[in-house]
Write a structure and sequence with these properties.
Blueprint: H1 3-34, H2 40-67, H3 85-109, H4 114-137
Length: 143
């Protein structure tokens, strides 16, 4: 595969991750708005912080894509809406798993670009931690 083709494949994989982060930013933010009742005190800060982190990831991804000579996507991945905490957390778990998959594919596409791989490994580590936390929050619920 030529250098240009490798770079194009990496940009495409990073754009998939970027689309996931756009969706996560909006999905978590909307959830922070919708939480009500006694769960509001607990989950609003959780959803707000998760939205802010996804926004930071999106910003970093966009800049990485441009540094590779690519064009960052403007299209988010599907945003799932929910009205209950249970549904929200299940949707978030699915979204985080999709993001992890996108980052792993970007890591694979980075091939011999070690600095990119190291950067992606750090994000992959964070995504895995989010998944584990959401799995704990949804433990015992039917998926």
């Amino acid at each position: 595969m030529s250098e240009n083709n490798r770079k194009a494949a990496l940009v495409e994989a990073l754009n998939r991750a970027l689309a996931c982060e756009y969706a996560a930013t909006v999905q978590y933010l909307q959830q922070s708005f919708l939480v009500s009742g006694k769960e509001r005190q607990t989950f609003t800060p959780f959803f707000s912080a998760s939205s802010a982190e996804a926004h930071t990831h999106a910003s970093n991804l966009g800049n990485k894509i441009v540094s590779l000579g690519g064009m960052p996507t403007v299209e988010p991945a599907p945003i799932r809406q929910a009205a209950t905490i249970d549904e929200m957390l299940r949707h978030d778990l699915a979204m985080e798993r999709e993001a992890l998959d996108a980052y792993v594919k970007a890591w694979e596409a980075a091939e011999s670009n070690q600095p990119m791989r190291f950067w992606l490994e750090d994000i992959i580590r964070l995504e895995q931690l989010h998944i584990e936390e959401l799995e704990k929050l949804t433990a015992g619920w039917a998926s």
